[in-house]
Amino acid sequence: MIAPGITILFEGGRRTFEPGDLLTAEYRIDSLVPIEIKALEASVMWYTAGKGDEDLAVHHFVRHTPDDSLLDFRRPQSLRTILPIGPLSYDGAIVKVRWCVRVRLFPLRGRESVSEELFQLGRVPQAVVRTPPPVVLEDA
Amino acid sequence: MPRFRFFSKKRGEHRTTSEVGARAALGVSFAVLVVVGGYILAQVVGRVTISEWRANHEFAAAEAVVLDKQVIASTEEGYTKYRPELKFRYSVGEKEHTVLGYDAAGVYTTDREDCEELLAEFEVGEKYPCWYDPQNAGRAVLVRGYSWAAWVVPLLPAAFVAVGFGGLTYLFLTWGKSAEHRALIQQATNLDIFDPHAPRRRDPALPPTDDGTNSPGTTLKFRIPPSAPGWDLMFLSAVCVGWNTLVGWFLYRVLVGHLGSRGDYVLTIGIVPFVGVGGYLLYRAGKQLLIAGGVSPTVVEISSNPLYPGGNYELFVRQPGRLSFSRFTVALACDEEATFRQGTNSRTHCERVVENEIFRRDAFVTDRQDPLSARFTFRVPDGAMHSFQSEHNAVKWKLVVRGVLNHWPDFERSYSLVVYPGRNGAPHA
């Protein structure tokens, strides 16, 4: 059996946001055959990558179950949240902070599926390892 | 079929761990803690704590004649332990009882002399008060009171039970939940209702500014405390004293051996590298002591805290004391810190990604009447990453004060700064 796919789309294809911006995204389950769903989770979150062990924090979280009578899993679901002031996306030398929308599907039978789409929060430039200190600036 | 990996290995940015396997193993460990800890706790409390409490509160008084006394010895795994034991006779109603015992706890000790001293308080043939169990008149004690063993020892297995129970509860609450769902639960439990900065800390990645705003400055608004003041010196001194005491003891044994014509040449040669390490530690500790004793604390004050990228801030630096400087610099620096597991160890790697010299003065002398005092402006780079702190990763901003002294060891001191996300020196709207 082919595992169902998950598609995540940002409104207007926008992938760069500033703190306080409204993030709007849509996600849907792509499956050729009807599937029974135990739960569907969508998160707006950040996680760290790089040399250190992974840390993560969730900014926005929704969990849908078949008990949600108003929910139709065949239709795309939408997600809206105001983004926080930080942490900003960062591509450091050994510490990286990545923001994403992650959707996790728990089918009644079979393995769970995960899909995530990265986006940029803020405009912090990529870090570079420090070169030797520049020559003196000034004497006060 | 799912594949379980019981061993974790970091491959690039991914870790090859079976989460289910790891959580199941963790669950078994917690369950073992609860079962083993619970069993030991029940044994200690049942046999010692409750017995002692009942002897003090429920046992009835009677009079006993001591018939014999001895120290009981028991050897287990090569260790011999002792407890006092008296043979005594007492009457309850018409019936006489002859029993062996001393106190309700019946705890062994490793000190035989202690037991003999306790027994010395009793003479064979003499009468002493005793207390018997009304529910079982054949059980009695000659000594009442409270022992540490009955009330402190149970704390150890109780701690095991508490850790195991807490772990099982956490696993139960998070079992079958995604990493995001678990993170959300953890974030919720991390909130501290007594923390005045709780709303800020709802965003777990921005460190608080407490350290930089607790102390008002005399020239500018805040005085910034040095990072880890004195800890380096204390740690180094403790290691130096500990190491050299140990090495010194071995050295003494070696010397005594050689003087007594019983020299151990293997030990003599083997101790040389340890003496070398001890010497190096002495050199490092001595240097730190010279800096701490000879260079007064540097006063650093700042006009604002937290800082924002693109902002200009005033800084005041004062270096008192009689010193001859070859160079004195202040730099604005940013370090990335990553903590990771390597086998069973946890290691932290630090990488400096920003270091801008913001002040420098060459070849000058200070004294008590004329200390180095400098007030200047510096700028946090536009678009700089803000301070960031999570469990295993951090971005830390700091001021680094360095002094190169003539005829004295160089020194370097750090002062933590907090940079929050923003633009042009202002927070994000």
Can you give a write-up of this model?
- The complex is a heterodimer of chains A (140) and B (429).
- Chain A is mostly beta strands.
- Chain A has strands at 5-10, 16-17, 22-30, 37-50, 56-64, 77-82, 90-91, 95-107, 113-121.
- In chain A, strands 2, 4, 5, 7, 8 and 9 form a six-stranded mixed beta sheet that branches. In chain A, strands 1-3-6 form a three-stranded antiparallel beta sheet, with no helix packed on it.
- Chain A is elongated, with a radius of gyration of 19 Å.
- Chain B has four domains: 1-59 and 147-170, no CATH class; 60-143; 177-205, no CATH class; 299-417, Sandwich (Immunoglobulin-like), CATH 2.60.40.640.
- Chain B is built from ten helices and 18 strands.
- Chain B has helices spanning 19-57, 112-119, 148-151, 155-174, 179-190, 198-201, 210-213, 231-259, 265-270, 272-294; strands at residues 10-11, 14-15, 60-76, 79-92, 95-101, 127-133, 136-141, 222-223, 299-302, 312-319, 323-342, 345-366, 372-379, 388-389, 393-405, 411-417, 422-423, 426-427.
- In chain B, the strands form five sheets. Chain B has a five-stranded antiparallel beta sheet. In chain B, strands 11, 12, 14, 15 and 16 form a five-stranded antiparallel beta sheet that branches.
- In chain B, β17 (422-423) and β18 form a beta hairpin.
- In chain B, α1 runs antiparallel to α4 (155-174) and α8 packs antiparallel against α10 (272-294).
- The model of chain B is unreliable at 1-9 and 196-202 (pLDDT under 50).
- Chains A and B meet through β4, β5 and β8 of A and α5, β11, β12, β13 and β15 of B.
Kindly report the greatest chain-chain contact and the residue count on each side.
A-B, 50 and 53 residues
The major sheet of chain B is characterized as:
5 strands, antiparallel
Radius of gyration of chain B, in Å, reads 33 Å
Count of helical stretches of chain B: 10
